[in-house]
Amino acid sequence: MTLVLKSLQSNVRFNLRAFRKDIQVLRDIMDIEHLAVGVICIDNKLMRRLNAAYRRKDYPTDVLSFPFREGKQPAEAPAVAFADDCDLGDVYLSIPYIRDGCKASRTSLSRTLPAVVTHGFCHLLGYDHTTEAEFVRMHKEESRILDEFSKRVGRQYRTLEACWQAVSDTGERYW
Predict the structure, then answer these.
(1) Which of 24, 47, 68, 159 has the greatest number of beta carbons closer than 10 A?
(2) Contact between 152 and 23 (Cβ < 8 Å)
(3) Is the four-CA dihedral 82, 84, 87, 89 of positive or negative sign?
């Protein structure tokens, strides 16, 4: 099914073609390649507006996910009964925010983006991290996915939490 990957930001240059390949591998691992998904790369200004509008938090963040189906339990990809059921949702990434987190944690953007997308896709599938139990379940799933991703691409990848271990000069955690 369709992957829409758009970069609506111009602050940070990165290899969109390589990123698309990484996303396709992740979709295959997560068994969501039969579902339409959008990955939209934006700047901090738009991310701040989205975060304020949808989460009532007036600051940018790294990733926001907007699932097509709300309120479902974490699970495998939904079965498609009708053509309208093919949409999983959209993931918005603030590339400048992620880049700043990479600088603080001394990791590269290309090594971090697969972890951020995995995190966003897990949210689309119903995973969350508002409680300790949910966090453990989501982290375990992200680890499983990124372990398989690492095997397929021949490079080691870590979860989003592991990528953002560093604390910035302002004391803000990037996860």
Answers:
(1) 47
(2) no
(3) negative
Do 160 and 127 touch, CB atoms closer than 8 A?
no
Q: Which residues, 6 or more positions from 81, have their beta carbon under 8 angstroms from its beta carbon?
A: none
Rg (CA), the chain: 15
CA proximity to 158, closest of 171, 145, 173: 145
3-state per-residue secondary structure call for 67-82: ECCCCCCCCCCCCCCC
pLDDT tens, position by position, 84-99: 668 999 999 999 999 9
Is residue 20 within 8 A of residue 73, CB to CB? The reply is: no
Query: In the numeric block, which tokens belong to residue 170?
Result: 């302002």
CA atoms of 149 and 86, how far apart (whole Å): 24
Distance (Å, whole) CA 27 – CA 33: 5
Torsion, Cα 12 111 137 43, to 10 degrees, reads 0
Model confidence, pTM: 0.89
pLDDT in tens, 78-133: 666 666 668 999 999 999 999 999 998 888 999 999 999 999 999 999 999 989 99
